[in-house]
């Protein structure tokens, strides 16, 4: 999944020191990919209130929906893309020669580095349900050679009534084989109905949870009394009598830092995504499908994509590449992590 908006807003992030535990609901916005009849996704990062969780800087959640995904070749710089499916199959092709079908429980990880292009499509109309995420690369590694990884088997933590798949990073002594460039974690947690588990966390990481199916009581999280602003956001989460919050598919629950564990109880069979990482201390600009550091750099990436001078070609896709939108009239400048 990628940003196909033709009028993308510049997003500038500035890392900050850990702020301690929190329980903050970040409600996403609906974005239609590929035109008026395209597939709808819910984008919870970047959010109007918080730009990043560790180095995680982009989350698109979609489905379950019967649809055809068809994302033409498009460019990326300065990031890694993470594709994770709950249901369906998607074919990935890229400009370094990769062609890989991804299925639920498998990881597609593409490192853009200096420049890469790729396409994604479903081979037929089918039920699609999944998540696309981006990870910002640090200054020291953001121009590495582009490459692609597919991991069919990932480590799991077996606990009574649940399973935890470590997608990226390390959790509870299990380490993903996927290559990362900043300290972070990504894991899918699947719980039987009524199951209660405790997940170990790193206190120096900030964390967030995204509901995929079902409903889960996050027993370690409490929010302030709901405000009118919260009601206007319409977040699909609620407090639970002072014992935590209920998380259902929809918003991202930001948990802050300083936690060494998280206790979850499933109201019914449920799946959720745990994301975390060291707070990303570098300033970044996100625009369209690029992550850069200055307006001039982003403009240069756009020019290279338009003229076909840096991003290679994607073989096998039947159709034209995605044209770049116009740059904003006002130069993109840092504005801080929060609006």
TrEMBL record:
Q: Which Pfam families match?
A: Pirin, Pirin_C
Its domain of life reads Bacteria
List, for all copies, the residue spans of the domain called Pirin C-terminal. 188-309
Cytoplasm as UniProt keyword: no
Stretches of Polar residues bias are at 1-14
Q: Where is this region: Disordered?
A: 1-21, 224-243
The record's cofactor note says: Binds 1 Fe cation per subunit.
InterPro entries in alphabetical order: Pirin (IPR012093), Pirin_C_dom (IPR008778), Pirin_N_dom (IPR003829), RmlC-like_jellyroll (IPR014710), RmlC_Cupin_sf (IPR011051)
UniProt domain Pirin N-terminal: residue ranges: 39-135
One GO MF term on file is: metal ion binding
- List residues binding Fe cation: 74, 76, 118, 120
Q: Where are its TM segments located?
A: none
Keywords of the record, alphabetical order, are:
Iron, Metal-binding
Cofactor or coenzyme needed:
Fe cation
Family recorded in the similarity comment: Belongs to the pirin family.
Q: Which PANTHER family match?
A: PIRIN, PIRIN-RELATED
UniProt-recorded name of the protein: Pirin
Which source organism does the UniProt entry give?
Planotetraspora kaengkrachanensis
